[in-house]
Amino acid sequence: MKKQKALFIYTHLSTFVKGDIEILSEICSVKTFRVDNSSRVKQFFSLIWELLYLILNIWKFDIIYIWFADYHSFLPVMLSKITKRRSFLVIGGYDVCRIKSVKYGSFINPIRGFMTRYSMNNASLCLCVSNYIDRVVRFVSKKAKTQVVYNCVNIPDDISDNTITNREKGVISVAIAKSPQSIFIKGIDRIVRLSQELKNIPFTLIGTDRIILESICGSIPQNLKIISRIPHEELLEYYKKYKVYCQLSRSESFAVALAEAMYYNCVPVVSNTGGMTEVTGSLGYVVDGENINQCSEAILSALDEPYSEQYRQRIESNFSIRRRYDALKRIFSLTYQDSNLDRQSQNL
């Protein structure tokens, strides 16, 4: 079978986007295109450039692959439909959320919501990162064709006995939160309250803006160490250092950081939110994020657990990059065959 050509459209080069570029590059010939949405002005001009690029080049590609449904997905999905290209839309969470109290989610804005819903209804297939997201997509976009393809972890296999078993009896949490809105969504205020409750337990929070957090929560407890965003390879060293990983988000589609921490055999303590329980399965501790007493008890129990490889085994079995690669390759192959059959039937 001839190697297919794919146009990969994204807004931010996150670890999961990098992972999919790597996967698709093994399956297809890939061209990447970034829509810069870091400001309204940059987004406006990026969308104009996207339109021009698609008009001139879409006919060169077999597959249009887009991360997230949003402003940047509307044009490629619409033009893919017109030109009979196959469009695959990865739904990651923000694109199907609406939390009015903090103005979070694509559906808060009517125009943005229209473009998001159109993209989901008209893409060849929506690739949902969890069953939770799949249910939400089918609820908000009745015509959407969906399939669950779980997110994956893509980290080097460098685990040794020394880095795994000799751990600090502390708690790590990872959240890219640099606004009041994201601090609320990621439940960082809950982490602060939890560290205040467990004053003798060291906590490390990675990726959150300290100044903004202090403006919301007041003074930070001495046992809570806050580290700004760091390179991914440095983050892996923290997973290997701590016994427990805690995430108390109010909205979460999958939680890649949770899966990464479990890969390094951190004991997970998570709120009963979104797709996180799909990651943990029957392992770890699931809590009501607002019930700090329950959270505290779960942390103390997790810290006392004996070392176990079961957390890493679950991630390897269910969320490996190989598993996502196989799923995407199978989907592309099937839709490629279907599109060829459609063309043949049209020529009869």
Describe what this molecule looks like in 3D:
With 348 residues, the chain is of the alpha/beta class. The chain has two domains: 5-152 and 320-347, Glycogen Phosphorylase B (Rossmann fold, 3-Layer(aba) Sandwich), CATH 3.40.50.2000; 161-318, Glycogen Phosphorylase B (Rossmann fold), CATH 3.40.50. It has helices at 15-27, 40-57, 71-83, 110-122, 131-140, 161-165, 180-185, 188-197, 210-217, 232-241, 256-263, 276-280, 292-303, 310-318, 321-347; strands spanning 5-10, 29-34, 63-67, 86-91, 125-128, 146-148, 168-177, 203-208, 224-227, 242-247, 267-271, 285-287. Strands 2-1-3-4-5-6 form a six-stranded parallel sheet, with helices on both faces. A six-stranded parallel sheet has the order 9-8-7-10-11-12, sandwiched between helices. Helix 3 links the parallel strand 3 (63-67) and strand 4. The longest helix is centred in the last third of the chain and has 27 residues, at 321-347. Residues 340-348 have low confidence and may be disordered.
Question: What would CATH call the homologous superfamily of the largest domain?
Answer: Glycogen Phosphorylase B
Which value, in Å, is the CA radius of gyration? Answer: 21 Å
Largest beta sheet: strand ordering? 2-1-3-4-5-6
Poorly predicted sequence stretches spanning 5 or more consecutive residues: 340-348
Major sheet attributes: 6 strands, parallel
How far the N terminus sits from the C terminus, by CA atoms, comes to 22 Å
Count of DSSP strands:
12
| Helix amount | 40-55%
Arithmetic mean pLDDT: 89
Beta-strand proportion: 15-25%
CATH class of the largest domain: Alpha Beta
**Strand/helix succession:** EHEHEHEHEHEHEHHEHEHEHEHEHHH
Shape descriptor reads globular
| Number of individual domains | 2
